[in-house]
Amino acid sequence: xxxxxxxxxxxxxxxxxxxxxxxxxxxxxxxxxxxxxxxxxxxxxxxxxxxxxxxxxxxxxxxxxxxxxxxxxxxxxxxxxxxxxxxxxxxxxxxxxxxxxxxxxxxxxxxxxxxxxxxxxxxxxxxxxxxxxxxxxxxxxxxxxxxxxxxxxxxxxxxxxxxxxxxxxxxxxxxxxxxxxxxxxxxxxxxxxxxxxxxxxxxxxxxxxxxxxxxxxxxxxxxxxxxxxxxxxxxxxxxxxxxxxxxxxxxxxxxxxxxxxxxxxxxxxxxxxxxxxxxxxxxxxxxxxxxxxxxxxxxxxxxxxxxxxxxxxxxxxxxxxxxxxxxxxxxxxxxxxxxxxxxxxxxxxxxxxxxxxxxxxxxxxxxxxxxxxxxxxxxxxxxxxxxxxxxxxxxxxxxxxxxxxxxxxxxxxxxxxxxxxxxxxxxxxxxxxxxxxxxxxxxxxxxxxxxxxxxxxxxxxxxxxxxxxxxxxxxxxxxxxxxxxxxxxxxxxxxxxxxxxxxxxxxxxxxxxxxxxxxxxx
Length: 522
Fold this sequence. Notes:
Elements: E1 2-3, H1 16-32, H2 46-52, E2 57-62, E3 76-80, E4 86-89, H3 100-106, E5 112-117, E6 127-129, E7 148-151, E8 154-157, E9 159-161, E10 167-169, E11 182-188, E12 200-204, E13 217-222, E14 236-240, E15 245-246, E16 267-273, E17 279-285, E18 291-297, E19 313-316, E20 328-330, E21 332-337, H4 342-355, E22 372-377, E23 385-390, E24 393-398, H5 405-410, E25 413-417, E26 425-429, E27 435-440, E28 443-448, H6 453-458, E29 461-465, E30 472-476, E31 483-487, E32 490-494, H7 508-511, E33 514-517
Parallel strand pairs: 1-4
Antiparallel strand pairs: 2-21, 3-4, 3-5, 5-6, 6-10, 7-8, 9-20, 10-19, 11-16, 11-21, 12-13, 12-19, 13-14, 14-15, 16-17, 17-18, 22-25, 22-33, 23-24, 25-26, 27-28, 29-30, 31-32
């Protein structure tokens, strides 16, 4: 059974006057350096901005919000495992944020995958799960609940891509072909990346094969350095123009200051290409500030790139030939007809910042889903130590009001419904969206949710009265005799006695009892 919501499509021309005013206001705010972002005004969403600037969106994909102020249709479709039923997830209000509660209700008691990402533009360039290609077998859908996030004060879901996942549309309308100009951006994350090919969003081949140089024009985001040298550790915003991830016309980086975005939770990645002799790359912090241009210059000097030979398909999460070994996060993205002005790009970045990615959940200090917390040890040795992640491992260490902001963020967790059992809880990292505490070989790690049943079980903990008589103890969902314990400042799931050192009975009851406290990071 497929439940469909009504779709109403934007009419950018009818709102041109309002859109132009909105662009001017957004640019003024950017230039004046105004402080906290204001509520989004009608006519100022990304596709309104680009439309008013004469480069209308031909694709507008988002799981979290509308990209036109008049849009009131579905954002994406989910399918549940229990019975194969599908439904569309829409908006709370026209031009607003996703109705994630509808997903939670539909998927209650089972799991769901994302099967389709709707195009909000009048072009209907919807993305479905990608089929087999020259470099990869057919993909699978991403788990619908893998990337919970707060945007604009609303609890919504992004799209978390693991290897073997991807989306595509090989039969599009209005997308650039054969050297036509286009622009594109996506909001992604610098905390969920790898060095495999290829986490892309943009223009690709129509047959899932590598058909030669210049047949792609897509944003790539990750830590793969195709042409040395690359500077820093990445991740970098690069152009996948087929047969190379380009940071300049030479392929390798000509910009020694472009060391990558680092582990920013939310990143704006932008590419624009006139299809003939010029392309540009930009990035920004999607939570604050403006855009940085890392390259603006000629097309690659190798043959086939000037002019370009785009084919007009749209790909998300893989390379053009379905190279699908990459990981990545996707929240929103658009493609335009024509190359946008820098002023329009800046206005769009201002709007993205105003959307409120990763803001406070509005709840703190409890084990209710959506509450932000910190977990303090109660053992007499360690009363100022908190659970934090450090190099992907979970440890305890002192955190105080004078601690660096990184320590405070690392020690803050968002309570989520248990990934394997909604009566229990899971703990999502505050500053690594989509990463959860899970046990592996008894040790606790911070890892990205991959949607597997094993991960769901390993990342689910069931709270009860503290074994020491104070605080809360958390039993492992799939090893219920084992509890979340600190031992020698490292976290494990531990039994009260056993063959491992961390199963020691000494101070076990205190070590598995935790104080649920207000979060260190807002």
